[in-house]
Write a structure and sequence with these properties.
Elements: E1 3-5, E2 11-17, E3 24-28, H1 39-47, E4 51-55, H2 72-86, E5 91-96, H3 98-111, E6 117-123, H4 142-165, H5 180-192, H6 195-207, H7 211-216, E7 221-226, H8 238-244, E8 248-253, H9 260-263, H10 265-277
Parallel strand pairs: 3-4, 3-5, 5-6, 6-7, 7-8
Antiparallel strand pairs: 1-2, 2-4
Helix pairs in contact: 2-3, 4-5, 4-6
Length: 278
């Protein structure tokens, strides 16, 4: 399996499909999943002539289950290690949820300074910050994330079944078609990763203030969010992020869930492709 090695010696698994001379699309996955969560998008963009790259965050999927570095700074630096190893240029970086935070920090601190980024997309993404703070009073209370920590520590296997069965894909909404295979695939991806990485990652995705990251990004950035996102509520995330971006564009989807990239892939893929090609 292909791996890139970070500056602190961590092996990061990645996928690299398609023509090496085509424009690269780089995908950043959400917590607590892996690059496998991008299957529908990677195959779609591959079929449309792009080079597609995705990696497993440290402690997630097939990457090394290291003890340290489960924070947004390391996440972004690890992504840069993959980009450098493959010498990717003119890339479009697409991040979902926690991966949206990772992508924002990567673009702001690594990608744009190195001249390697063409555009960015934040999908159901956590910036500017999920936690309720003095600066962002509309955020979620700390007790919500303490509940996540308790779930991971007490019975990770059950917690990682409850999340996709319920709010992640909106399968708890009346009249929604439940896809059992999607639930099982979410659980499969999550359980491959490290419990320590998942536990410490909760702080990373909930408490990292990415106001400055968003302000620093100058490339065209598309912000996509479901209006029925029960995991990352839209009012304290997408609607604030687009105001901080220099060249931000917001598109929202009535009734769509946090996991819309999977259960509404056809709609999302079309919008992603249109943005990439403009």
């Amino acid at each position: 399996m292909p791996f890139a090695t970070t500056r602190d010696g961590v092996e990061i698994f990645y996928k690299d499909w398609g023509p090496k001379d085509a424009q690269p699309i780089v995908f950043h996955h959400g917590w607590p999943l892996s690059s496998d969560d991008w299957d529908a998008q990677m195959l779609f963009f591959l079929q449309n002539g792009f080079r597609v790259v995705a990696h497993d965050r440290r402690g997630h999927g097939r990457s090394a289950q290291v003890s340290e570095g489960h924070d947004m700074d390391h996440y972004a630096a690890d992504a840069f290690a993959v980009v450098e190893a493959l010498d990717l240029r003119n890339a479009v970086h697409i991040g979902h949820s926690t991966g949206g935070g990772e992508a924002a920090r990567y673009v702001a601190r690594h990608g744009e300074p190195a001249g390697r980024v063409a555009k960015a997309v934040l999908v159901s993404a956590v910036p500017p910050i999920m936690l309720k703070t003095e600066a962002y009073p509309g955020g979620l209370p700390r007790e919500v994330f303490d509940g996540f920590r308790q779930g991971v520590a007490a019975n990770r296997a059950q917690f990682f079944l409850d999340v996709p069965t319920g709010p992640f894909y909106g399968f708890n909404r009346e009249g929604t078609t439940v896809h059992q295979g999607v639930i099982m695939n979410w659980w499969r991806q999550a359980m491959i990763g490290s419990a320590k990485a998942h536990y410490e990652g909760i702080k990373a995705f909930s408490e990292t203030d990415q106001t400055d990251d968003l302000k620093a990004i100058s490339v065209p950035t598309l912000v996509l969010h479901g209006e029925d996102d029960q995991v990352v509520p839209i009012d304290n995330s997408a609607r604030l992020s687009v105001k901080l971006l220099r060249d931000g564009r917001l598109k929202t989807y009535p009734g769509f869930s946090h996991g819309m990239l999977t259960v509404n892939a056809e709609t999302l893929n079309a919008d992603l492709l249109a943005f990439v090609k403009t």
